[in-house]
Amino acid sequence: MRFQGIHYRAVVIGWSLDIVGSILASSLALSILAPEAADPQVLGQRLSESSSLAFALLLLGLMFDVLGGYVAARLAPGEELRNAIAVGLLSGVSGALLGIGQGDALPTWLQVAGPVLAIPFAAFGGYLRMPARPSLP
Fold first, then answer.
1. Is a pLDDT exceeding 80 seen at residue 45?
2. Exposed, middle or buried by CB within 10 Å (0-12, 13-18, 19+), for 125?
3. How far, CA to CA in Å, does 125 sit from each of 47, 64, 96?
4. What are 95-99's contacts with CB under 8 Å, separation 24+?
5. What CA–CA distances, in Å, run from 64 to 20, 50, 78, 130?
6. Which pLDDT does position 1 carry in this prediction?
7. Closest CA to 81 of 35, 17, 129, 49
8. Structural contact between residues 127 and 70, judged by C-beta atoms closer than 8 angstroms
């Protein structure tokens, strides 16, 4: 099945950058901010206790959603927004599956917010890459 205007290579590259970047950056941030959270149960407890830490990790992941959407848009000229949204959809589904895999380790609001916000943030990345449109007089 082929979706019109979707450049699969662009979407896969943008999505891969998003997922790998999010995981690496979150791991680095956790190793600095909460080194004792290497155990998943301790991490869940720490995230439940510290909404600021959970929010920081959410923002970090959303920044990579923007970057992944931007890269996909860059690789798909003329179909920037469509491909960026496809990255957001894949990232949202991936995030939801990872959240389900964590069980009760992550706060519910974080399990919902990450996948839901992935689409608009990736779309924003695609929007940033769109060519400038002349303004109306």
1. no
2. buried
3. 27, 9, 20
4. 95/61
5. 9, 22, 22, 18
6. 43
7. 129
8. no
